[in-house]
Design brief:
Length: 229
């Protein structure tokens, strides 16, 4: 009798990083339960990309939650200001695209779903090397949330603490691209842009576009999103 694959919650935005993180979870033998949050971001293209990515991964379930954060979390990504373009991405400054408490909120939602279905693992695609300077993309944040989960849940109190996996945490963007390429991922399905142009194409000038371009260039792999006819 075949043992069923253990469930894992994967936070899925439709971008390059979350796609790769979820694919790593699948490669580790987990059954994927994908969670996408429509949090008031200024474009729907991100959610559409998440649906494409989820389908390509063959997830067991994909839930899209409506949780509009615009009233309480002011950010360029929720329309509070213009998305910065052609910024010096290695400046070390926290940019206006930071969404207050976003990863904490998303992980809390994932924690609730994980406990409800008996999953002991959550995957998210944060990265502490090639990123825009967000404070909730650091190893200390992941460790702190795991401690919180062990205290805040029935599962944790009973000794079944949630494991938060951030497999891309110490990887460069080029490393991530190479990993996804080795896993056979179609990055043409993804969207990393913070401010896509009409039709859903990337702007090419926001932080996320610049980091993505640098990653593909350093990996020596063409970005299929830009090379497809």
């Amino acid at each position: 009798m075949t043992t069923p694959a253990p469930p894992a919650i994967v936070l899925l935005s439709g971008g390059l990083d979350s796609y790769t993180s979820a694919a790593i979870a699948r490669d580790m033998g987990f059954a994927l339960y994908a969670l996408t949050v429509r949090y008031g971001q200024t474009h729907e293209a991100e959610v559409n990309a998440a649906r494409r990515v989820a389908a390509s991964l063959g997830v067991a379930d994909h839930v899209v939650i409506e949780l509009d954060l615009r009233a309480i979390a002011r950010s360029a990504l929720t329309g509070a200001s213009e998305v910065p373009k052609d910024r010096e991405i290695d400046s070390g400054q926290i940019p206006s695209t930071y969404v207050p408490a976003r990863n904490t909120i998303f992980l809390s939602l994932a924690l609730a779903w994980a406990e409800s279905i008996g999953a002991g693992d959550v995957f998210l695609g944060i990265n502490a090397l090639d990123y825009s300077g967000y404070p909730d993309c650091r190893p200390a944040f992941v460790r702190a949330f795991e401690r919180l989960a062990s205290l805040a849940t029935k599962a944790g109190v009973e000794g079944n603490a949630l494991r938060v996996h951030a497999p891309l945490l110490e990887m460069t963007k080029a490393d991530i691209v190479r990993k996804g390429h080795a896993l056979g991922l179609d990055y043409g399905l993804t969207l990393s842009c913070y401010d896509p142009v009409p039709g859903g194409l990337p702007c090419g000038h926001c932080d996320s576009c610049l980091l993505r371009a640098r990653g593909f260039a350093e990996a020596g792999i063409p970005d299929p999103l830009l090379t497809e006819p």
